[in-house]
Amino acid sequence: MAFISLLKLFDMHYISTRGHTARPSFSEILLGGLAPDGGLYLPLTYPKVSGAELDAWRSLSYAELAFQVLHKFATDIPDADLKRLVTSTYTAQVYRNCRAGDDTNRITPLRTLEQANGQQLLLQSLSNGPTLAFKDMAMQLLGNLFEYTLQKRGTELNILGATSGDTGSAAEYAMRGKQGIRVFMLSPHRKMSAFQTAQMFSLQDPNIFNIAVDGVFDDCQDMVKKAFLDKSLSHHNLTSANSINIARWLPQMFYFFFAYKQLKFQNRPLIFSCPSGNFGNICAGIIAKKMGLPIEHFVASTNVNDTVPRFLERGNYEPKPSKATISNAMDVGNPSNFIRIQEMYNNDLELFKKDFSSYSYTDEETLETMKSIFKMDGYILEPHGAIGYLGLKEELKIHSNAIGIFLETAHPIKFLDVVEPALGIKLHIPTQIESVLNNEKVSKKIKSYDELKAFLG
Ligand SMILES: *Cc1c(COP(=O)(O)O)cnc(C)c1O
Question: For ligand 1, what atom is nearest to the CA of residue 274?
């Protein structure tokens, strides 16, 4: 008995940003969203990784590295089970690299774009998952973790979400065919791109339900919010798949570690630039740093939705309604994870500024960058990655001798309508996408909340 309780001391627990007394374990927060007091969960403590351990990890594959990191956080899942789940997620079949020439370390390959004056500028491509956006990196694992945990508990779960494109398809491709899970995804009727619509509506899995709402994205979002508060739906065990849930972005830590292990010059300052919307991605990087990964500095690069850059400049946090841009996956006026970042820095602005910069860019600057990178290197960047590049360039001005990495969060084919006219080219359509475009598309059209309720049953 004493031995067991001693072991429990080493279990990882999570705490609400609002300080609720409950200290749930990983499996418990996995299936829930908000904490009971309405706060967001963060780890209670940060497991440490030593330099020797980091060195030993250099020889690991993506899946092996992912296991080493995750088992420090998911202490209530037996190691053998966790290893199996991680191994079946991070395979070269799931993360097929759509770009020619990157066949080593193919899950999140690094590519040097510029090298001069002792500095190196690289991109890390995260868009090789089934929906060609970086949200697959965590979502695919989430699908396997959900299925496993639900089976252990003998329960079922219904995911209800609203999407304007990327999140919805990543969630559906992660959950399709999974036992005990159904996905109800609301999207604005005829408002998504042809590509996004095809990607979602061509799925014919019996546990995936695409619901096309007669309205705009905000109407979808309002219906979802209403459903979560609706007591008459509580028997459905509804949950969301957005980055309110820490398990939705915790697996994004892996690629920061994986980038580090691929670098040859370890003793130079390392800077990461993340194209940021809800700031889940950069939260994952901050946790990796807290664990001991030697990251010198972070750049949160945004489009004109500049709530965080303004905060860093003026010290007050003033969210604004979002503005539409060509990097639309980052059109967020009030980033939901920012409260977590403030908490991780003890609400100390000076401490935060030491590690963190944030810059904002217009659509014109984004397009100019896409053009100049294409001209210089032949590399086709989409708008989100281009903003990541711009933020990194700015920060490198004040860090001589640094290695800078920006994250490429989507494949250009997802933003074909922007990329093709900007660069004056025709994009090659990857084969797995071609079939999707040609398949039959199915969705349920609804006009009102009552119709949604009737559909959920
Ligand atoms: C979601 C998304 C982002 C923003 O990521 P956050 O974790 O919300 O900051 C950036 N680029 C693309 C393509 C995305 O889909």
Answer: 9
Give the closest residue to 330 by CA, choosing from 353, 355, 356, 360.
360
Read off the CATH number of the domain in which 395 is found: 3.40.50.1100
Rounded to the nearest angstrom, the distance between the alpha carbon of 152 and the centre of ligand 1 is 32
Question: Is 363 contained in some domain?
Answer: yes
Closest CA to ligand 1's atom 8: 278
Tell me the pTM.
0.94
Check pocket membership of 412 for ligand 1, CB cut-off 6 A: no
**Does residue 135 have an active-site annotation?**
yes
Q: Is the CB of 163 under 6 A from ligand 1?
A: no
Query: Measured from the CB, is residue 278 less than 6 Å from ligand 1?
Result: yes
What pLDDT, on the 0 to 100 scale, is given for residue 10?
72
Output the CA 133–ligand 1 centroid distance in Å: 8
Rounded to the nearest integer, the mean pLDDT of the chain is 91
**Model pLDDT for residues 302-326, shown as the tens digit of each residue:** 999 999 999 999 999 999 988 989 9
- Structural domain including 329 reads 97-133+249-428
pLDDT at 341: 97
365 found inside a domain? yes
Contact criterion met (CB below 8 Å) for 269 and 296: yes
SS3 217: helix
Rounded Cα distance, 304 and 290, in Å: 29
CB burial string 407-432: b at 16+ within 10 A, e below: bbbbbbbbbbebbeebbeeeeeeeee
103 Cβ partners below 8 Å, 6+ apart?
97
Determine, yes or no, domain membership for 436: no
Q: Are 323 and 295 in contact (CB under 8 A)?
A: no
Ligand 1 within 6 A of 244 CB?
A: no
Per-residue pLDDT at 1: 44
Distance 281 CA to ligand 1 centre (A): 7
What separation in Å is there between the alpha carbon of 6 and the centre of ligand 1? 40
Give the separation between CA 132 and CA 98, rounded to whole angstroms. Answer: 9
Q: Which helix (H) or strand (E) holds 112?
A: strand 110-116
Q: Tell me the mean pLDDT in the region 218-235.
A: 89
Contact 359, 330 (CB under 8 A): no
Q: Which of 135, 178, 393, 414 is catalytic?
A: 135
Nearest ligand 1 atom to alpha carbon 275: 10
Q: Domain tally for the chain? A: 1
In a domain, 225, yes or no: no
Asked if residue 404 has its Cβ within 6 Å of ligand 1, the reply is no
Asked whether residue 104 carries a pLDDT value surpassing 80, the answer given is no
Mean pLDDT of 66-95: 94
Q: What pLDDT, on the 0 to 100 scale, is given for residue 196?
A: 86
| Closest ligand 1 atom, residue 127 Cα | 13
